[in-house]
C-alpha cells in the first residue's frame, strides 16, 4: 500500500485511533498508517465518530442553521471582519466577511463575546460540548501522528493549552460555526466579490486558496463544498461522500513547522455554487487546534527521534510571531522549488564576504571535499530521494546513525520497507545525508547520480551568473 498509495481519501474510525497501554494493536497500527498516508497524499482524511457523537454534531449543525437564519440581512460596521493577524487568539462572537459571503460565530473558552447592540448575544446551542468533543479528537490525531513519526507520546503537549484551562486562561484553540451563501444575507451585494459564469457564482480561481495556521483542523458540514489540494496539485472535493457521523481532518501550518515539513499544510477553498435556492446556505463546524501563544515551534522532538531537520526549521519560532507573520504557500509547499535554497542563501545573504574573498583571484577557491559532499548530498536528497518518496506517497523517517548500522543487515528492521521502496543504496545507513560520514556520502551520491565524482565542479554553481560565465570564457 505504501508503494501504490491510497486509491481514495483515507477513512479511519476514531475508536481505532484511541491508544491503549502496552503494545499497539493491529487495528491501531493500520489506522495510524492509513491516517498518516492520507494526510501525506491528499492533505486530508475522514474521521468516523461513534454514533452518539454523530448525533451531537448533527444537532449542532441544526442549531447553526437556525442561528444564522435569524441574523439581520446585512451586518453592522463593527461586525465586519478585518482579518487582523494580531487578533488571532482574540476572536469571539459573531462577525461577517461580506467579500466571501461568509458569516462566522467563534467560540473560544475563557473569552466572553462582546455584547450586540448593548444586549445579550445569543450563540448557537451546544458549543461547549462540541468544543470539548472536537478538542479531544484533535489531540488523539496528534498522538497518532507522533506514533507514526516515532516521537514520544504526547510530544505536542508542551505547545498546547492546559486541560482543563487554568483560571483566567484564554483558549488558543477555537470552534468556528460558519455559514456560507445564506440567501437572506445581503452583505455581498455591496462588494464586488464574484462574477457570473453560466448562471453560477464563481467564488474562486485556481490560484485562490486558504491555509490554516493550526496544528489540526476538523470540519463537519451539512453540504459538500470543501476542496483541498493533494500532493499532485489536484483539487479534490473531500466532503462529497461524508456520512452523518463523519468529519474531515487536515493539517495546518503549525504542524508543518513542528514536524519539520513532514506534513504539508492543506490548501483549501469553499465552493458555494448551486446554493442560491437553499434556504439556509451551507453551514459547517470548524475546530482549529492551535498552539498556545506563550510557546515556540522548535522541532526539538523531531531531532530527538533522529529525523533530519532542514535549515529553515532549525531556529525556534515564537508562536505569537508565527501567527502574525505572512507565509507564502508557494514557497512552503513546492519542495522542488527550494531544492537549492542553500545556494541562494549563499548568494544573497553573504555577498560582501564572498566578493572580498574573490577580489584577488578570478576563480573562487574550490570547496573542501567535506563541504562539497555535504552540499551535493543535500541536493541529491531534495531532487532524487524526496521526489521518489513523494510520488509513492512515502514520508521519509530517518533513523539514528548508530542504530541503523544494525538495521541495514536485517530484513525486518523499522526502515527496511522504506529503503526497499525508494531504492536506498545497499550498505548505507538510512539517515539524513548530513549525518552520514563522507565515505557513506560517496556511496549515496553514486547510487542516485551515476557518474558523479568528487571532482564535480561545484564552485561554479556557488558563484553569481556573471562570474560563472566569465569562468567559462577563461
Automatic annotation (TrEMBL):
Region (Disordered): 342-371
Bias kind Polar residues: ranges: 342-353
Superkingdom assignment: Eukaryota
InterPro entries on file: IPNS-like_sf
PANTHER family noted in UniProt: 2-OXOGLUTARATE (2OG) AND FE(II)-DEPENDENT OXYGENASE SUPERFAMILY PROTEIN, U-BOX DOMAIN-CONTAINING PROTEIN 62-RELATED
Protein name per Swiss-Prot or TrEMBL: 2-oxoglutarate (2OG) and Fe(II)-dependent oxygenase superfamily protein
Organism, as annotated: Cannabis sativa (Hemp)
High-level lineage: Eukaryota, Viridiplantae, Streptophyta, Embryophyta, Tracheophyta
